[in-house]
Design brief:
Length: 391
């Protein structure tokens, strides 16, 4: 026997056409692909690191003489330490929410064989589990956003600063100030390499810009300083589109000059020529792989209808990253360039990663459910990164 419908609904013949969803901005997470998980057994992690040699060349000796003793430095081996933080949040359902659901569940059980219960009971039984699932997805999304924020903020600024009026910390991962051309650059070699005055950004918005020279300048500086190749860079779509502004691409196409007083623009005359083609030219000339990144997390104050899109990284900065193979040449630890450490939690059956918990033994009787993760990014070689502002 089909479920009974109220008479007024039969008269109205209500029809539900579905839901129109808003178009959302990019929200993909790539932080854990750059700084992957590393499972550890404790919230406090200690690791050793080896410092460079005090002298790099072996001395000569006479044929019949004894060799000299090798020089040793007491600070040859140092130690680093990382502490993991527990990130978690929960949802609380009142006793009336849970009790009402259980009462409807009991009513449905009593008339299970006849199906002779009002349609509202079926709707109630469907709504509450769906609400639990939606809330769980929302909590997990916020945790994923937090991990992404930790990683990307560290890459953007070279450190982390956090203060929610309960926990406060500031971390400096050790990127030299002269490897950031956002106004803090004091090294003329790096500034000259990117074709900008000390502390100034690269002007890719100008027709006289030279993106290839700028990138090669950064690569050469980092290779001369650290012996590593820069092979990856995080960039916004705005930056990637600005590469085409350079008039050097017009010269490459062979179309230089003007027509009717208007400068010739190759992208309007050559099929397939545009920002993507220019990006491929730059990548081929520099060996650099651009990673387009415009992800945001969304916030809306309680009671407000205004949604704010917050970028994880600024849209006017290039973040250069070292080649993983070059880092592995001198660092064979599990951390390498960077890893996101995660440790066990009792509610996750003492397994690292995300965990969930439930609580339903309170008076008045209610229901709590939550999600969390113990995690924190550790950058072993932040000095191998460069941030270049592009306007």
């Amino acid at each position: 026997m089909p479920p009974l419908l109220a008479q007024d609904r039969l008269v109205r013949k209500e029809v539900m056409l579905g839901i129109v969803r808003e178009i959302v901005p990019p929200t993909q997470h790539i932080g854990l692909t750059l700084v992957p998980w590393l499972e550890v057994e404790s919230d406090d992690v200690i690791f050793d690191y080896a410092k460079g040699l005090t002298d790099g060349l072996a001395p000569a000796r006479a044929e019949d003489a004894e060799s000299e003793l090798a020089q040793k430095d007491d600070t040859y081996v140092g130690q680093g330490r990382a502490a993991l933080i527990d990130w978690a949040l929960k949802d609380r359902y009142s006793a009336s929410d849970v009790t009402r659901y259980r009462e409807f569940l009991r009513m449905a059980e009593q008339v299970r064989d006849t199906n002779a219960f009002p349609l509202t009971i079926t709707r109630m039984l469907e709504d509450f589990p769906a609400k639990l699932a939606r809330d769980t997805t929302r909590r997990r999304r916020k945790l994923d956003n937090r991990i992404e924020w930790l990683i990307m903020t560290a890459l953007q600024t070279g450190g982390l600063s956090y203060n929610d009026n309960k926990i406060k910390f500031t971390i400096d991962y050790g990127r030299p100030a002269n490897q950031s051309s956002t106004g803090a650059d004091t090294n003329s070699a790096l500034a000259a390499g990117i074709g900008a005055p000390t502390g100034a950004p690269a002007l890719w918005s100008a027709t006289t810009s030279d993106p290839i020279k700028n990138i090669q300048g950064v690569q050469q500086y980092m290779y001369d300083t650290y012996g590593v190749r820069i092979t990856r860079a995080l960039a916004s779509r705005r930056i990637l589109n600005s590469i085409l502004n350079s008039d050097r691409f017009a010269a490459r196409s062979g179309l230089v000059g003007s027509s009717g007083g208007t400068t010739v623009d190759p992208k309007y005359l050559i099929d397939g020529w545009g920002p993507v083609a220019a990006q491929q030219v730059v990548e081929a000339q520099t060996g650099l792989t651009f990673i387009e990144y415009d992800a945001v997390y969304r916030t809306r104050p309680i009671g407000s209808n205004t949604v704010t899109n917050n970028r994880f990284t600024l849209d006017n900065t290039l973040i250069f990253l070292p080649d993983e193979g070059d880092v592995a040449e001198f660092d064979d630890t599990e951390i390498g360039f960077a890893r996101t450490l995660t440790s066990p939690h009792p509610e996750g059956n003492w397994q690292p990663g995300f965990y969930e918990w439930e609580r339903e033994t309170v008076d008045p009787w209610g229901y709590d459910t939550g999600t969390g993760v113990k995690a924190f990014p550790v950058f072993g070689h932040m000095e191998l990164t460069v941030v270049m502002q592009v306007l």
